[in-house]
Amino acid sequence: MSLYIRDESVDALAVQVQKLSKAPSKTEAVRRALQNELRRMQENVPLRERIRKIQENVKAIGPDDPNFDMKTFTDEMWDDA
Q1: How far apart are CA 53 and CA 1, in angstroms?
Q2: How far apart are CA 20 and CA 79, in angstroms?
């Protein structure tokens, strides 16, 4: 089955992708572009889900230590104490 592109701007994009990806044909360039776009969309994690994971990590770390001294900690890390 052949791929017919009637829109000149879409054809120009397909040619650009073909050249940059060194695809043997415009059809192969379009196939690769569509596969990459599908993969990107499937791997895209919604913002709500990313925030939920961050909140879970923060909760797992636990509450702040009110006696924690960042200056002392940094000095000890750099052997300045």
Answers
A1: 44
A2: 51
Cα angle value 49/51/53 (rounded, 5°): 70
pTM higher than 0.85: no
pLDDT tens profile 2-22: 778 899 999 999 999 999 999
Domain ranges within the chain, ordered by starting residue = 1-58
DSSP 13-66: HHHHHHHHHT-SSHHHHHHHHHHHHHHHHHHPPPHHHHHHHHHHHHHHH-S--T
- Which tokens hold the place of 4? 């017919």
